[in-house]
Amino acid sequence: MSRTSAASGAAGTADVRGATAYGLARTAPPRPRSRHRRGVGFIVGRVLLYLMLAALLIPVLFPVYYVFVGTLMEPRELSTFPPRLLPTGVHFENVQGALAAVPLLRMYTNSLVMAGIITVCQLFTSALAAYAFVFLRFRGSAVIFALFLSTLMVPAEATFIPNYLTLTGWGLGDTYAGLVLPFLAYAFGTFLLRQSFKQFPRELYDAARIDGMGHLRFLWTILLPLSKPALTAVGMYVFITSWNMYFWPLIITRSTEMQTLQIGLNSLKAGEAANPGLVLAGAALSVIPTLALVVFGQRFIVRGLTAGAIK
């Protein structure tokens, strides 16, 4: 009797162990593949992928590299064939010559003022419009938003002549007001901020309203601080677009005191074509702000542009 009980107990223990092992085998997560199991093919594939990406990166970065390197070269180094890729020394004569040929510092200031005012005003108007489309209930909001977006299909050049006639009729030609007034509001920034605001929990908005918080206070103290990536992305996009603007400043300004940097670069290119070092120096000065924004704020651009893309 005791032998039978022991045998049955041993069989039960073995069954339990087997069932436990079977259960663990079924419930255990799959083990990650080790690097050794990936094999040589995986490593070779990665190396080839990085080499291909590096090869595609060269045509993009080489013009920017040569602009800065050519700025530091002497004129004779720029005219050699094959072209030199490294300067023999650091020479600032091209920068000094470019600043002497055209009032680039004044134009630099005009571009900064114009791009800064347009960026701040577009952030302000876009935030207010996006807040209204997301949090305020009013009849026809979807139709109004569709009309708002339809303005993106109108080319900016089509509005230049009416804007020019209106602003010069008001006596605002060749002024900062004339440079910035047509661009204080834009549908693209409203669209991006609206997509970001739609991700905000509606319960928090309702709780704030029940506590007596007004619309402007909720927007300023809660919503905007939590939407910094989207605001940064919109601000950087607007600043870069305004900084590179050429046609509108060209037709609304007449004096060199009010012209922007892009017009100065074109004047430098036309007047100093025999000395490419001066043109490269002007281009290097113009690309520094936008390059700094892209390098230090690219993560905000990606996060801001993808806000609202995934729910």
Automatic annotation (TrEMBL):
All copies of the ABC transmembrane type-1 domain together span: 108-297
| Predominant cellular place of this UniProt entry's protein | membrane
Q: Which UniProt keywords apply?
A: Cell membrane, Membrane, Transmembrane, Transmembrane helix, Transport
Q: Name one Pfam family in it.
A: BPD_transp_1
How would you describe this protein's topology in the membrane? Multi-pass membrane protein
Subcellular localization, as worded in the UniProt entry: Cell membrane
The answer to whether UniProt assigns keyword Transmembrane to this entry is: yes
Q: Which residues cross the membrane?
A: 43-68, 112-136, 143-164, 176-197, 218-240, 277-296
* Record bears the keyword Transmembrane: yes
Q: Which PROSITE patterns match?
A: ABC_TM1
Question: What family does the entry list?
Answer: Belongs to the binding-protein-dependent transport system permease family.
**Protein name listed in UniProt:** Carbohydrate ABC transporter permease
Q: Which organism is it from?
A: Nocardiopsis exhalans
